[in-house]
Specification:
The protein is α/β, with parallel strands linked by helices and 322 residues long. It is built from 9 helices and 12 strands.
């Protein structure tokens, strides 16, 4: 009898290339990924986000500037070189002091949704990790668009493999759906190289939401450091499949690398599975600890958790809505 072929790595205890499922199919159907039910869920998430966004978090995006604005804020003393047009002459008549009017202006927030589309993302159950990541990305995009932020979607694997330019307004969500449905997938993850290209191409700083399984053979530090050093705000979402964390395997198997197709003959024992699970958890904890150390929002989820539950958790944390 033929040995089963499973997605894995040359080292069964290497969590970056887990032995979790049959190698994914690049042609997985995405036609029903964003149906009417999904759209209704997005509108519910938007209503929840408005309640959060209406609170004091919104104040973080307000700046006080001289001149016209949406709302009067305060005065400050005139300094040489300031524009005479913004002097409050009524106060000058009463106080004999030159004071400038300050107004509050709300800053635009640029949001970049970076979705890992490497081959390791095409595995998972009940949804492939890629489909789950796209749903989460679409939900966050919708809320950003509805709040009139500038939102771009950038898929990546070994390189950046596409781009939906920054958009505003929630009516753009159908363009988002079409972009994600048509997005090409495949290849190995190279987070460091992709983030170098990303910061070079995007000079407007903002929130960089990374949705990935983070199974990069070279690790995650270099890519996240590139974002930090270039004044972006990394927002890390790690997506995994339960079978990656706790694979149900035994006996003589051929492990197939989930991204490059290379194989490895192994004999899976209980001790080997225990060692693998410990290494997988260790790797995930290292990612979480790294994000905590540098004050990056971090969320880890498996594909069995409904995407809207994850998004609500993100909103309630206050990390996404600014």
């Amino acid at each position: 009898m033929a040995r089963p072929s499973v997605s894995g790595a040359f080292k069964a205890v290497d969590p970056r290339k887990p032995p979790s499922a049959i190698k994914g199919n690049r042609a997985q159907d995405r036609s029903e990924l964003f149906d009417e039910k999904f759209l209704k869920t997005l509108e519910h998430l938007h209503m929840v986000s408005r309640k959060v966004f209406a609170g004091n978090l919104r104040a973080e995006r307000r700046t006080r500037k001289v001149g016209s604005g949406i709302e009067f804020a305060d005065h400050r003393t005139y300094s040489r070189g300031d524009d005479f047009r913004y002097i409050d002459w009524n106060l000058y008549g009463r106080l004999d002091k030159l004071l400038l009017r300050l107004f509050e202006e709300e800053e635009d927030l640029s949001i970049y949704i970076l979705v890992d589309v490497s081959d390791s993302m095409s595995i998972g159950s009940p949804l492939p990790k890629l489909h789950y990541a796209m749903q989460v990305g679409a939900a966050l995009t919708y809320v950003g668009l509805a709040n009139l932020d500038r939102v771009a979607i950038i898929p990546f694997a070994g390189k950046l493999v596409g781009r939906m330019p920054p958009s505003r307004g929630k009516n753009r969500i159908f363009r988002v759906f079409e972009f994600l449905r048509q997005c090409a997938i495949g290849g190995q993850t190279d987070l460091a190289e992709c983030m170098k290209t990303f910061v070079t191409q995007n000079k407007r700083r903002g929130l960089a939401v990374l949705i990935s399984d983070f199974y990069d053979p070279e690790g995650f530090q270099a890519g996240l450091n590139t974002l930090r050093y270039n004044k972006f705000e990394p927002f890390v979402l790690q997506v995994y499949d339960k079978r990656e964390a706790e694979p149900n395997l035994h006996g003589d198997l051929t492990l197939v690398d989930c991204e490059n197709g290379e194989t490895k003959e192994v004999t899976v024992s209980r001790a080997l599975l225990d060692a693998y699970q410990a290494e997988h958890e260790k790797y995930c904890k290292e990612l979480e600890a790294y994000c905590t150390k540098y004050a990056m929002p971090f969320f880890r989820t498996h594909t069995s958790i409904p995407f809207d539950e994850l998004v609500l958790k993100i909103f309630r944390s206050g990390g996404f809505l600014r």
